[in-house]
Specification:
2 copies of one chain form a homodimer. By secondary structure, chain A is an alpha+beta fold. Chain A is built from 8 helices and 22 strands.
Chain lengths: 360, 360
């Protein structure tokens, strides 16, 4: 396993010193920024995430800020989801598509004010896409990346920990957000996060980073808090899609099972999407047999006999389910729950079964 | 040193199997794709690059293709360089700027036909920027990323090696390109590359990748050919700037010493650039004292006494010059050759001297 060569080009976060001190053992790179990927054995991180509480540096979820009179107009150009219900205090998940209807990202959108929005983006350059559209169309809106760095508090004990730092935070509903005091500052806290274990995301201004991080760790004493990161096994079990892994510009939101977020809004991809529903393939959870798999670094073909009917894009061995859990794109002809397929994994062919839903 | 966690999201190249077999020991991630960063000691790679010939997988230099009646109009919106002299067979280096005049990239542009251009880009999402501009402005041009993967052949023996595979390639002038036969296919070869040792870049279609790679390695027998990668030490010695390291959107082309490529063309940043010249700071080469430096993972302040007058963004110890060679942004007040400054490196303060030019 080769190391990651560090350089300024792969940006540090306000929490990188803390993550290094916690013994990060693997990095990913996401939006040209450091994302911790492991702190020792992924299986240990996984077990801990399901039983206690973890603090994650997810600064890589960069905010793309749209600000100005045309902010609402621009954001609706980006997504087929009808954003008329967008309001402060409520997170909305929304696919972002290109003119061909292909997925460019799947951000969570926060409306700070009618003329000020944040898109909390996955790994893809929404900022330049939005800036290009705005400039080309002559819209009156500034597109920028503010110095906001999400920290996730995830796990069954997340409410307990958060109550010690942001007293009223446990009162938030799922995908609700509000402003909370931290010392003399106010920060946005949402009940959200990239796991199925429950928790929060804190939208942290850079200069506040180390103090906020240390306060969370300190508050976690007695709760077995650990520094963690999005867990490959748990997120696949939970059916949480990863942009760039499970979804690319070659896929429409319908292909990705995100049709419920396509309201026919007049986004740049509207015409293309109108002809893309119903989809002829869709992402499914799969159980894959055989021993624990190697890392999936490129799509693995899904075969029905000699016919390729899809591909696996995320896979890991699940200790809890005793099987390799996977996500992949499957043709309509073979996506029915219970369908038996074969995965052409690099090491050996493996039996696979399409599931009705996710594992969690 | 933490490993890089591999996943589909960080794309493989057509040459990844070859790079792994050659013993890659460090990765970088560039345009969401794998870029080899070392094959053992960087100093050994460096010595070899200066004496023999290396094959580099620089697939990460993605091509952004602009194709259609408005391709020429769109490309001139991207850059302040006057592209009226663009023609087939000639590479043009051109800064790409945003509406504020900030650097978005510094690609090499190839005109395949009047209505078909490739921008061979550094680490930054020019494709979505161009696509957004085109869509917003209603231009008749398709913006895409073709499956083209540059391979660099670099080093003093590059001409010898290339003559064995592409007989007439040594006839190319610097920054000239042409079509060459490889078996039944034609590929573009340019005399270019990210080193000062001389060499070529081959624009390789994906399916041809393994055969082309193996042919180059085979042709290199007796020439001490090795699999290598852009070398940090040599590129700093040569004053080759790295987008994302030495240049960011906070810098204008004038700041980056690229004023000679600003012809006042009517690009999106034209108005901003008109007021940005002369610059008040500029990138300079520096010689930095003290023992070999640790990796520079964030800018290091450049101080004149207690006053910050710039920052170092790339630095490495040079065996040939016996000093740490560096690139950094320096204020006009202190950029004269011979100016003595101090670098606040993370380990210790170090004396620095501004140079008149690069080391090579």
């Amino acid at each position: 396993m080769a190391v990651l060569a560090r350089a300024r080009r792969i940006r540090e976060t306000p929490f990188t010193t803390r993550v290094l001190a916690a013994g990060v053992s693997a990095w990913s790179v996401y939006n040209r920024m450091l994302l911790p990927a492991a702190f020792g054995a992924v299986e240990d991180d996984y077990r801990h995430l399901k039983t206690a509480v973890q603090i994650w540096d997810v600064s890589v979820e960069r905010q793309v800020e749209l600000r100005g009179p045309d902010a609402a107009r621009l954001v609706q150009m980006l997504t087929p989801r009808d954003l008329s219900r967008l309001k402060p205090g409520r997170c909305l998940y929304a696919p972002v598509v290109d003119p061909a209807g292909g997925m460019l990202n799947d951000p969570v959108i926060l409306q700070l004010a009618p003329d000020r929005l944040w898109l909390s983006v996955a790994d893809g350059d929404v900022m330049l896409w939005a800036k290009g559209l705005a400039h080309g169309a002559g819209l009156d809106v500034a597109v920028s990346e503010p110095d906001i760095n999400p920290v996730a508090v995830q796990g069954p004990l997340a409410d307990d920990l958060m109550a010690r730092v942001f007293t009223a935070a446990p009162g938030l509903k799922f995908f609700g957000w509000d402003w909370f005091d931290f010392g003399a500052q106010r920060v946005i806290v949402a009940r959200s996060g990239y796991s199925k274990q429950g928790g929060f995301e804190i939208y942290c201004p850079g200069p506040l980073g180390p103090a906020l991080w240390d306060a969370l760790i300190e508050a976690g004493r007695g709760l077995d808090v650990r520094v963690g990161c999005p867990n490959l096994i748990e997120r696949i079990e939970g059916g949480l899609l990863s942009y760039g892994n499970d979804m690319t510009p070659d896929d429409t939101p319908f292909d990705c099972g995100l049709g419920r977020y396509c309201d026919g809004a007049a986004c740049v991809g509207a015409a293309a999407l109108a002809s893309a529903d119903p989809p002829v393939r869709q992402i499914r959870s799969l159980a894959v047999g055989g021993p624990a798999v190697p890392p999936c670094t490129a799509p693995w073909p899904l075969m029905a006999g000699d016919v390729r009917v899809g591909q696996v894009t995320s896979i890991a061995f699940s200790p809890d389910f005793g099987v390799n859990v996977a996500l992949g794109m499957v043709a309509a002809s073979h996506w029915a729950a219970g369908t038996a397929l074969t995965v052409s994994a690099p090491d050996q062919p493996r039996p696979a079964e399409v599931r009705a839903g996710s594992f969690l």
